[in-house]
Specification:
Elements: E1 11-16, E2 18-31, E3 38-51, H1 52-62, E4 65-69, E5 71-73, H2 76-88, E6 96-98, E7 104-111, E8 114-121, H3 129-142, E9 148-152, H4 161-173, E10 177-181, E11 195-196, H5 200-207, H6 214-227, E12 232-236, E13 242-245, E14 250-253, H7 266-279, H8 284-299, H9 309-319, E15 329-330, H10 332-344, E16 349-354, H11 361-371, E17 376-382, H12 384-391, H13 400-408, E18 415-419, H14 425-431, E19 435-439, E20 455-459, H15 467-477
Parallel strand pairs: 1-4, 1-9, 2-7, 5-6, 9-10, 10-11, 11-12, 15-18, 16-17, 16-19, 17-18, 19-20
Antiparallel strand pairs: 2-3, 7-8, 12-13, 13-14
Helix pairs in contact: 1-7, 3-4, 5-6, 7-8, 8-9
């Protein structure tokens, strides 16, 4: 599955229960003399967006433009939450502040990487009618801006039955799909949505059907679809993947996970990735596959609840042995974004370039050595016109796409970019690699782009192996 979105930055509205996940990290070396409890020496504090905020984070990571609807208290935590959303890049013009309401903040004390205790400060009552009306009014006013709406319900009082039904009706009138992560046992307030994403346990509770096999899974899925007039019913199945139900049949999309380290936030990732794919007009099978890959990336990492598109793409490439090498060929704009993401993930980027006209052993050994200097190898390939200017009218032997594709098919090469200029200076500037690799024949010479990188590495070519020699040999035998 090639990741190719025709709407790379869809405008998506997320409405729901926003919260702050607060972590106090420390160590324990003694028991309190006052009571038989651990004494935790706190060493650092971290905060991340939780609840509906985690869905927002996932969408922003994919590249969506996100507007957030919700209600916070007139308190310090409320101000902190709004600032966190704004710092992440989300729009907050629809957020309402309600006097007397406590903003949800869940604090966890962690010692030796284990949660010792959690304490919550929050309001669980339904939001006021005034907050409800203001939020709905803002959504109605801006409804034409959104390509999709996601409702993230954590049962903390924002998505009241009245508000939820009103949002669904406004969206349906404007042909905007509504995706919902539901809570509770009564799903009537979600009637008319495009789809719901309960897990197996939640679906069992909502339908009073114990899901224990394929038959009961089908019963529950179709009952949800019928009872709540959904376009699709979706049930997430943990390690078994995702099941969705259309008019006629159940479709099961198997999980893509190789290893599970932390399932935190996987449900939010599934909801966000389904929404992102559907906003790009993908069909349900494609969208569920994408959601499974995104969830697989998230649960394979500790303490992270988001997955970038480049991480998902890397995962797909490793998951499918015959993955299309076209996916590794990028435009300058694409590689600039990917490189930015790689740097955020502390990946050491290595760059090299050349014509690579007739791929041979010398090239491969050179690229293997280049990859050994870092984590990700990006190869710049001279376009056909550039090769002609550098090598003469008879070159290249192979056109630029062929040369790029062959390089992309090599295990040691992560990305390939074709550039038109005679030198890769502008491309190096866009990528900003840490390591620039050139051939040993550059010893004592100025290397283009050396001022843009931390280090230049020179690699000795394999003696006697060159495209020029191969061409001469062919001509001699012709």
């Amino acid at each position: 599955m090639k990741i190719n979105f025709k709407h790379p930055h869809p405008q998506i509205l997320v409405v729901g229960d926003l919260m702050i996940d607060h972590y106090l990290w420390g160590s324990c070396s003694r028991i309190s003399p006052e009571a038989p409890v651990q004494v935790i020496d706190i060493q650092r504090e971290t905060t991340v967006l939780g609840g509906a905020g985690n869905v927002v984070n996932n969408l922003l990571t994919f590249g969506a433009k996100v507007e957030v609807g919700g209600v916070v208290g007139k308190d310090e935590a409320g101000q902190e939450l709004v600032q966190m959303l704004q710092n992440a890049g989300a729009g907050t013009s629809l957020l309402q502040v309600q006097e007397g309401r406590k903003t949800s903040k869940k604090s966890r004390i962690i010692a030796a990487n284990q949660q010792v205790v959690r304490y919550d400060k929050e309001s669980k009552d339904s939001i006021s009618k005034e907050s409800e009306q203001k939020l709905l009014s803002g959504i109605e006013k801006n409804i034409h801006q959104y390509q999709l709406i996601i409702l993230s319900d954590y049962n903390k009082g924002v998505l009241t039955p009245t508000l939820t039904q009103a949002i669904i009706k406004i969206a349906n009138l404007n042909n905007i799909k509504v995706l919902i992560d539901p809570k509770g046992s009564d799903y009537s307030k979600y009637t008319g949505a495009f789809l719901l994403t309960p897990n197996k346990k939640e679906a069992s509770t909502a339908t009073s059907i114990e899901i224990k096999d394929e038959h009961t899974l089908q019963e529950a899925g179709f009952l949800l679809k019928k009872n709540y007039q959904l376009t699709y019913s979706v049930i997430t199945l943990s390690e078994e993947g995702i099941a969705f139900f259309d008019e006629k049949e159940m479709h099961k999309i198997p999980t893509k996970a190789k290893a599970v380290y932390d399932v935190t936030g996987a449900g939010d990732t599934v909801l966000a990735s389904l929404g992102f794919a559907i906003a790009n007009d993908w069909d349900m099978i494609e969208a569920c596959n994408f959601a499974n890959y995104a969830a697989a990336v998230v649960i394979s990492k500790v303490g992270s609840a988001t997955a970038t598109l480049s991480e998902i793409e890397e995962y797909i490439a490793s998951y499918i042995p015959d993955f299309n090498s076209d996916t590794a060929i990028k435009t300058r704009e694409e590689i600039a974004e990917i490189s930015k993401d790689l740097r955020k993930r502390n990946k050491k980027i290595v760059f090299t370039n050349g014509c690579f006209d007739v791929l041979h052993l010398g090239h491969v050994k050179y690229l293997e050595k280049a990859k050994s200097f870092g984590d990700v190898l990006i190869v710049g390939v001279n376009a056909d016109a550039s090769v002609k200017r550098l090598k003469g009218e008879e070159r290249p032997i192979n056109p630029e796409y062929d040369r790029a594709y062959l390089l992309a098919s090599l295990n040691v090469v992560d990305y390939v970019v074709v550039f038109e200029e005679d030198t890769p200076y502008n491309l190096i500037e866009a990528i900003s690699p840490e390591i620039l690799v050139k051939g040993g024949d550059y010893e004592g010479k100025e290397v283009v782009g050396s001022n843009l990188v931390k280090e230049v590495k020179l690699v000795t070519f394999v003696e006697g192996k060159s495209t020029t020699n191969i061409i001469k040999k062919i001509k001699t035998k012709a």
